Structure formats: structure tokens, C-alpha cells
Amino acid sequence: MSSPRASAKPAADACIAVVNAGSSSVKFAIYGADARQDVRYRGRIEGIGTAPRLQVARPDGETVAERSWPADQLDIRAATLEVLQTAAGLIQGTAIAGVGHRVVHGGRDFAAPVRVDSAVMAALEKLVPLAPLHQPFNLAPIEAIAKAAPHVAQVACFDTAFHRTQPAIAELFGLPRNFAEEGVRRYGFHGLSYEYVAGRLKEIAPELADRRVIIAHLGNGASLCAMKNGRSIATTMGFTTADGLLMGTRCGSLDPGVILYLMDERKMGVREVEDLVYRRSGLLGVSGISSDMRSLRASHEAAAAEAIALFVYRVVREVGSFAAALGGLDGLVFTAGIGENDAKTRAEIAAGCAWLGLELDDSRNARGAGRISRDDSRVEAWVVPTDEEAMIARHTAAVLAAA
Fold this sequence. Notes:
Blueprint (H helix, E strand, L loop, with lengths): L14 E7 L4 E7 L6 E8 L6 E5 L5 E6 L7 H16 L4 E8 L10 E2 L2 H8 L9 H14 L5 E5 L9 H4 L5 H5 L9 H14 L1 H4 L2 E7 L3 E7 L2 E5 L20 H9 L5 H10 L2 H6 L5 H6 L3 H25 L4 E5 H6 L1 H10 L9 H6 L2 E2 L8 E4 L4 H15 L1
Parallel strand pairs: 1-6, 6-8, 9-12, 12-14
Antiparallel strand pairs: 1-2, 2-3, 3-4, 4-5, 7-8, 9-10, 10-11, 13-14
């Protein structure tokens, strides 16, 4: 494979590549490395392990590349190399200043993005037990690029870092102290999304941004973040990404006694329980139909309606909890797939939060952009699209510029 040229620091004509890898997909984007950092291409390889397919488009939606492979031909590493090769072809010899990666877990030590070297990589690999369903897939592309193009600088950007501003008491579980000292504590996730939305809020609603705000990142993975003065003070996800809200296939908060019961009475093994709480629960498990909110909204089955009602109830209940943690509430911001696109879910959540002084404007909510609450609503409601890849590009440029 021919490798793209790299530069030590971002140049005016250079690019920054962003890689966001999961268990069955690799999302990527290419940004200019100048001050504007305009996105040039967005793409993804989906269906890794089943029916891999690549699609790349310009910001206006024009498709510029498509390809598919046999089911057994691509793993995450091979898909990453295809992404790198595709990027090299698209930018036609322009230097790649560096590659930024989403890494779910930074543990206690990584509170900011960092350039990856062998020591950093070794530290991140030690965190795999804290995020076994995410961390290995986040690290695989870094390893693949380091091997194929070792001259290309790589930067790890962490989903946990944004939450390191939380007070120590918010991170503790009611377990013996030695467990917390060993790393068993609440970390929180979706931090790159929250950081981006918090930054956008400062641009579009500066008076609200510095007050008491809850951001609701509602998608297949879902969580809330309570923020004061733009800083995280509490979040629903905890030690793992399975905690907190009901999600597409994850159960969210669960009485630990349920796990003990399943293992003792149902004789379920650790991996069976893991599969249950991460892949067979949530909207999918409760409805028995789908993990996709759109499919559930279209269904006439009572179980679909109950799954939606439980999703909304759990969000509303946690909003109340976070309002207590904040000492009141001034704004609720919706983002991610469901939060940005499902007006009905937003309306149902807002109705459950009416006691806080939140009143939606129906026509604004239907449009689903900007402020969606009434002008006289005591608590403001907004829809702010998230962009994790843009946040990673900014962090990557900053780390490289400081090198």
C-alpha cells in the first residue's frame, strides 16, 4: 500500500483524518488542517464481518466512492487500511498532518487528547477490561496505521475526558474504598459529543451555556450530562457504557441483584450476562421488535409502545435527578439520532419535565432546529446537532500544533 505523505505540524494545505471505529464499522472524515477545518469528505465502512461496504460523500451529499467486499475479507484493521488508502486517493497527494481517533476509555490518567506513542498505547491497552466491547476496536485502527504508515502522527481523543471535571463524590460507588482506588468508579462517556454541543451552545445561546444545562444524547447509545458553566458535573453512564438510560440494545441501570439472580438461578455465565445487558436488552429487548426508535414508532404492537414509554420515563426520571444535582435547571438540549430527529420523543420528554417549567413550542419542535421551547418557558429547550468527528479534528490539530 502506498502511504499518504505526513507533516509534523498542520500546514495550510494539509488534511486531518478522523477515525471512529466500532465493532462492525469504521466511520471516518477528512478535514482541512487550516484554521477553518472545513470537512471535505465523510465516509464509512459498514457491515464488517457480514457484508462490508464502503461509501464516501462530499459535505453536499454527493457520493464519490463506493465499494463492497465478501463477508470474510475485512476485519477492523483491514478496513482501516482501506480507509487510509481511500483518503490518500481522495486528497490526491495532499499531506495528512495526522489521524485523530475516538477512544472510548481514557481511565483516570488521560484527561485530555494525547499524541499516541508506544507508552500511551500500552496504557490504553490496560484499559480494555474497563470497556471490552469498545476499546479493542478503538485501538485496532491505531495499531494498523502505526504498522502501515509509522510516520503518520496519531492522536487519541477520549470519550471519558470531558467528565473529569466532575466532583470526586459524583464518581464514587458505595463499595469499599479500595475498589475506587483500583479504578472502579463512574467515568462517563459520550464526552466528545457533549464537548462539541457545549461549544456550539456557547455560540448560539451564550447566556444559557454558562447556566444549569442538561444535554440529552439520545441515540442507540443514550446518556445525559448535567453541566454547570459548560463543565460536566454528573452523567448517567458510569463504570461502563451499559449504565444509565434505556438504550437501543443496552438495559441501562440495573439492580445488581438481577445479575446475581441470573447467574445463580438461571446459571448464566459472565459472557451470557454480558450479551444480555449489552446486545439483547433496551428497546430491542422490551419491545421484542427492534432497537430502532423509528421502527417502534411505526409499529402498532403494545410492546413497542411500552418500550418507548419506558425510554421516555427513564429520561424524565434522570432529568429530575440531575436538576437536583444542579440545584435547578435552565436548559435541556437534545442531540444525537433520536434527540435530533424524533419530535414526538422530544415532546413526550418535555411533557414529563413540565413541572420544571419546560414548555415546548409545537411548531418549533416540529422543525427540530435551534430553540424549540416557548419564549416564556422558564426552562429553555434546544436541538443542537452533534459532530464528534469535528471535535476530534479540532483536538488533533491542537495537539499537533503544540508538538
